[in-house]
Amino acid sequence: GKTTEWEVLEDMDCPSIDNVAQAENTDVETLKKACETQLKRKGIDVGVFVVDDRQAYFKQCTREEAVAAKKQRKGCTMYVLPDPEAKKSFRMMKAVKD
pTM of the predicted model, to two decimals? Predict the structure, then answer.
């Protein structure tokens, strides 16, 4: 299948958003896959996950909520799910220009 392009925000966390799951794993590809398989099957739509040096925290929220809640935190990286609508309108705009 096609891989989702998550947006990467270095040295950021969003502590005000509740964790819905966590993983003793910091391998980003594995974590992305978990969002799209295991967690989705449980009915959890992860909008963002945060990785520190030891583990990952999955959070259920919209992209807007994740971005609004972000706080600087050294050693953490936020991976935010891109907005599917933004991508669509971007593609349409490009098509119009050609």
Answer: 0.82
pLDDT by residue, tens only, the chain of 98 residues: 566 789 999 999 999 999 999 999 999 999 999 999 999 999 999 999 999 999 999 999 999 999 999 999 999 999 999 876 665 655 666 666 65
Q: Residue 7 and residue 87: Cα distance in Å, rounded? A: 12
Is-contact 15 76, C-beta < 8 A? no
Q: What is d(CA 61, CA 42) in angstroms, rounded to the nearest whole number?
A: 15
Query: Could you tell me the end-to-end alpha-carbon distance of the chain, in angstroms, rounded to an integer?
Result: 28
Q: Residue 2 — φ and ψ, nearest 5°?
A: -85, 145
